[in-house]
Structures are given as C-alpha cells and as structure tokens.
Amino acid sequence: MENLTLYNKLAALPAELKAEVSDFVDFLTSKSRKSSEKKKPRFGSGKGMFRMKPDFDEPLDDFKEYMY
Questions:
Q1: What is the C-alpha to C-alpha distance for residues 42 and 46, in angstroms, rounded to an integer?
Q2: Which of 17, 26, 40, 64 allows an S-S link to 13, with CB 3.0 to 4.6 Å?
Q3: 32 near 25, Cβ under 8 Å?
C-alpha cells in the first residue's frame, strides 16, 4: 500500500480512531524492534548440558538380524 493512500485513509478518520491507530503503530514498532533484537546462541554455550553414554556408537540389539 502506498503512503499517500494510507495517509488519505488516516486523514478521513475521526480523532479518537486516529489515537487508536497511533497506539497500534507504536505497538507494531515495538514488536518489530523486539523481533530484531533476539539473541543468537553463541558457539559452545551448551557445553556440559548433554552427556553421551560410552556405548553410544555400539550397534543396537534391535538391528542384529539386519547385520551380516
């Protein structure tokens, strides 16, 4: 939508609805700012959170019949 069209629609509204539009625009602005400020995880930030069992790489008993 073009800015001029949007401006004409806004100009035709009564004052109380213009105030609501202004509040909504403020809400959308803050929402946009929050989504762009999301923190990205840093490499290695999950270190120590997960542990692998020593037999992790061992073949599973469920697949014995498929193995040579």
A1: 9
A2: 17
A3: no
Three-class SS of 34-53: HHHCCCCCCCCCCCCCCCCC
Whether 58 is covered by a domain: the verdict is no
DSSP state, residue 54: T
CA distances from 31 to 24, 28, 56 (A): 10, 5, 44
Residues 14-60 pLDDT 10s: 999 999 999 999 999 998 887 766 778 889 888 889 899 999 998 88
Is 41 contained in some domain?
Answer: no
The pTM assigned to this predicted structure is 0.48
User: Domain containing 14: what range?
Assistant: 1-34
Query: How many domains does the structure of the chain reveal?
Result: 1
